[in-house]
Amino acid sequence: EKLVESKDQFIATVSHELRTPITAVVGLAQELRDRFDEFDREEIDEFVGLVSDQGADVAHIVEDLLVAARAEVGTLTLQIEDVDLLAMMQTMSNSDVSLSSRVDSAVVGADAGRVRQIIRNLLANAVRYGGPNRTVVLSTDNDWAYLEVRDDGSPIEPGSRERIFDAYQSAGNVPGRTGSVGLGLTVSRQLARLMGGDLTYDHDGSDSVFTLRLPLPT
User: Fold this and answer.
1) Among candidates 70, 110, 108, which has minimal Cα distance to 195?
2) What whole-number distance in Å separates Cα of residue 8 and Cα of residue 71?
């Protein structure tokens, strides 16, 4: 009964999360089509940027859905190669999150596209639910590379720290923000484990810490 209820909520949330950016894309595109000559260059650039961002949101939701479905039926394939986590984070960094590296390089054996998907989900989760100060920290030891996404928001209750990785769950509720689809963390942990690593959550007394662990090449 709980699973059915969760899936019903999941369908409702997916519908809402898809409808919101799609409505924006359609509305902005119609404005550009019907009134293009009335806008100046700056306004057009702003509209196009919004269309691109909202379209990317839809693509990311659909990508998580597809990965979850393929993983469930055992048809998800990975392309393992050398991936430089530091270089990847530098290309993905933005004003929402600061980057701190304890190493000059962190090359792992992984699927680059799936690592990028995990990092994107973790960053989105931190922005949606975390505190105002968010940092990505890279480190390594003899066998592993560790990518920590840290924020100074309220900790997740100990009893919910594993449940947030279950399908159709979200990491929290923030007033004024829609609930997430509830697959980002599930998919991210699945992908990490398929690549020989893991994804965990902890709180160190000051920060919430999501840690992506991936193997260094042997």
Assistant:
1) 110
2) 21
Residue entry with tokens 């057009």: 44
Helices 41-73 and 184-194: crossing angle in degrees, nearest 10, is 60
CB within 8 Å of 13: residues ≥ 6 apart: 178, 179, 180, 181, 182
Average pLDDT taken over every residue of the chain: 86
Tens of pLDDT, residues 124-160: 889 888 999 999 999 999 999 999 999 999 999 998 8
Contact call for residues 140 and 108 (beta carbons, < 8 A): no
Structure tokens at 149: 């996404």
Q: How confident is the model at residue 16 (pLDDT cuts 50, 70, 90)?
A: confident
Tokens of 148: 């920590």
Which string of b and e fits 124-137 if b means at least 16 CB within 10 Å? Answer: ebbebbbeeebbbb
